[in-house]
Automatic annotation (TrEMBL):
Lineage: Bacteria, Pseudomonadati, Pseudomonadota, Alphaproteobacteria, Rhodobacterales
Name recorded for this polypeptide: UDP-N-acetylmuramoyl-tripeptide--D-alanyl-D-alanine ligase
A biological process term (GO) from this entry: regulation of cell shape
Residue sites binding ATP per the record: 108-114
Reaction(s) this enzyme catalyzes, per UniProt: D-alanyl-D-alanine + UDP-N-acetyl-alpha-D-muramoyl-L-alanyl-gamma-D-glutamyl-meso-2,6-diaminopimelate + ATP = UDP-N-acetyl-alpha-D-muramoyl-L-alanyl-gamma-D-glutamyl-meso-2,6-diaminopimeloyl-D-alanyl-D-alanine + ADP + phosphate + H(+)
UniProt xrefs under HAMAP family: MurF
Entry's family note: Belongs to the MurCDEF family. MurF subfamily.
Length: 459
């Protein structure tokens, strides 16, 4: 199905098409480009113009460029604009404008991507759903997601993130959501904000992009809930809240194997459903999802059934069996709140021994050492039998643990990965978690490789 014609793209961007073309998709990476995609030559570590010839050789329908690149013929199928990122943003706005379905914006310090995927599962049987396959939530990820959106989309789920002040409002105004969900507020990227209240104000800026009468979905029970509520009031958005004091409230959460049997209430009406995860934070976010579904007028009962099809994405709490070891792969990101949530998941799964393999939590600000150390005294740590740690910040947690809980500490995740045989044993349930740039995911890879080797050799 044609996503963009050269005529439509010219109208959207004000650019110049060297000839007529039709594109079925939009790509920024020649490694994953598909036949018929429009290749967008963004500048990042490398200049995308250097890859235009390769993209066209791989079957790209055209390329969005600011000039004719070296090695590319003048009559190649190009859309020439003054600035490529501006052109992508224009395509994103045009993609949003031609879509008549409902748009949901999702932000928060923890759980954006897993909540986006929960919404995808919840709405999958109620219409055509569009959402990014990865965490495309930044200054190019949001317009790319919108530019890839088919015009006949019924539900679009747009994840919106930030690293610095002033980033969320422009992206939300581009997406123009009918409902905006904030999962939670936690000290992630706090170094750029100085205080958690600054993070709350930035996350709440998502409400500035709401369409008229668009709904704000906010968590209750936080020290920053009042900030979120005020931001919604400032734009006249009706509020639906979730959490201990919210309209969407979890009444009970009963683990059964690797699932949770949940009972809740939404605007006074009972609702029961199953999640294929034992993470308590996923249960709370599921209530936020159902509140969001209600806010856009979709079927909440069908959405609750759809949540039963959802599984945590790889790197964000997915549980898998590696021979005699159960692995919780939560290695994509970390801050103190998400770390406690991950440890909570570990505490709920059966095991002969519960092992946590933890990498540094980054961008926590000047008290980062104390925030690592404080995890040792958190009640959730009582259920953990052994902790291995990597990185200079995690040394603070490691040193604060009782000696009986201390496994191996190493300066780097790579060193831990090289000693994987020393970290776990048959019957363990293992949580691996840390900030992405701690590279603790390399321990996940080493465990998987060890599991594959054991399977291949019959051990």
């Amino acid at each position: 199905m044609t996503l963009w014609t050269s005529e439509d793209a010219v109208a959207a961007t004000g650019g110049n098409a060297t000839r007529d073309w039709q594109a079925n998709g939009v790509s920024i990476d020649t490694r994953t480009i598909r036949q018929g995609d429009l290749f967008v030559a963004l500048k990042d570590v490398r200049d995308g113009h250097d890859f235009v010839a390769q993209a066209l050789e791989k079957g790209a329908a055209a390329a969005l460029v600011s000039h004719v690149p070296d090695g590319v013929a003048d009559d190649a199928p190009l859309l020439i604009v003054d600035d490529v990122l501006d052109g992508l943003e224009a395509l994103g706005r045009a993609g949003r404008a031609r879509m008549n379905g409902k748009v949901i914006g999702v932000t928060g310090s923890v759980g954006k991507t897993s909540t986006k995927e929960m919404l995808r599962a919840a709405l999958a049987k109620q219409g055509r759903v569009h959402a990014a396959e990865a965490s495309y939530n930044n200054h190019w990820g949001v317009p790319l997601t919108l530019a890839r959106m088919p015009a006949d989309t019924d539900f679009a789920i747009i994840e919106i993130g930030m690293s610095n002040p002033g980033e969320i409002a422009p992206l939300s105004k581009m997406a123009r959501p009918h409902a905006a969900l904030i999962t939670t507020i936690a000290p992630a990227h706090i170094g750029a904000f100085g205080h958690i209240d600054g993070i709350a104000h930035e996350k709440a800026a998502i409400f500035q992009g709401l369409v008229p009468a668009g709904a704000a979905i906010i968590p209750t029970g936080l020290s920053t809930t009042a900030i979120l509520r005020q931001a919604a009031d400032d734009v006249g958005a009706p509020i639906l809240s979730f959490g201990p004091e919210g309209e969407a409230r979890l009444l009970s959460s009963q683990p059964e194997g690797e699932t949770l049997q949940l009972r809740g209430t939404l605007s006074g009406k009972p609702i029961n459903f199953t999640l294929r995860s034992v993470g308590p934070h996923f249960a709370e976010n599921a209530m936020g999802v159902l509140a969001t579904v209600s806010a856009i007028g979709a079927d909440v009962i069908e959405a609750a059934k759809g949540l039963g099809d959802w599984l945590p994405p790889q790197g964000r709490g997915a549980v898998e069996q590696l021979g005699g070891i159960r692995l919780i792969d939560d290695a994509f990101n970390a801050n103190p709140n998400s770390m406690r949530a991950g440890l909570g998941t570990l505490s709920r799964l059966p095991a002969q021994r519960r092992v946590a393999i933890l990498g540094d939590m980054l961008e926590l600000g000047p008290d980062e050492a104390e925030q690592h150390r404080a995890l040792a005294a958190d009640p959730v740590m009582a259920s953990v039998d052994l902790v291995h740690a990597a990185g200079p910040l995690m040394r603070n947690l490691y040193d604060a643990l009782p000696e009986a809980k201390r496994g191996i500490w190493s300066e780097s995740a790579d060193d831990l990965a090289s000693r994987v045989d020393e970290l776990v044993q048959e019957g363990d349930t293992v949580l691996i978690k840390g900030s992405k740039s701690s590279y603790i995911s390399r321990v996940v890879q080493a465990l998987r490789k060890a599991g594959d080797t054991a399977t291949a050799t019959g051990t």
